[in-house]
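Colleagues,

For the teaching module next term, I've prepared a clean inverse folding example: a structure given as tokens, and then the sequence designed for it. I'd like students to try predicting residues themselves before seeing the answer, so please don't circulate the second half yet.
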């Protein structure tokens, strides 16, 4: 029997503070978000992107920031090798990214393969001027690809077989980040 231990890395209040800090970092960089869009990667990156888009609008007192939700299911390099079929989500982007600054948002950066898939999918919406990556958790030492987060809420140097789980109020009833070994 496999023994697992669970350690809580962030709970509700620190989770909220971390998201708030990430919002302010983006405001510091992008000011009024002119010619800039936020794109959440389906599925769990969208939870973070939803919150950030709403909070940034509240801080800046603006009614709209270009925001989209990107599904990468059919762009994954393991799409046809999975035992169970992948469930596609809906891409919701009513704009093109041609010439825009794009902030890609995901919950956990691990091997980099999800981000590679997102970059490929993003190309179907135009050629952006710039793409930056924001992630809630950066698992720094487990990359398969040379991908780096520009903004990270938390950096975790876990062992290879450890698992990072981000729990969201909307799904699990509480915001927290867990390290499961």
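(Answer key — instructors only)
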């Amino acid at each position: 029997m496999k023994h697992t231990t669970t350690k809580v890395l962030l709970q509700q209040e620190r989770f909220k503070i971390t998201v708030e800090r990430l919002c302010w970092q983006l405001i510091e960089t992008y000011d009024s978000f002119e010619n800039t869009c936020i794109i959440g990667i389906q599925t769990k990156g969208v939870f973070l992107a939803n919150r950030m888009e709403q909070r940034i609008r509240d801080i800046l007192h603006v009614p709209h920031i270009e925001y989209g939700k990107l599904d990468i299911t059919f762009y994954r390099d393991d799409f046809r090798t999975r035992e169970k079929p992948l469930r596609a989500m809906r891409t919701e982007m009513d704009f093109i990214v041609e010439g825009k600054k794009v902030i890609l948002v995901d919950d956990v950066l691990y091997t980099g393969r999800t981000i590679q898939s997102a970059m490929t999918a993003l190309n179907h919406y135009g050629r952006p001027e710039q793409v930056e990556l924001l992630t809630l958790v950066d698992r720094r030492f487990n990359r398969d690809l040379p991908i780096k987060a520009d903004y990270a809420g938390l950096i975790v140097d876990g062992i290879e077989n450890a698992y990072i789980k981000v729990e969201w109020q909307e799904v699990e009833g509480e915001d927290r980040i867990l390290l499961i070994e």
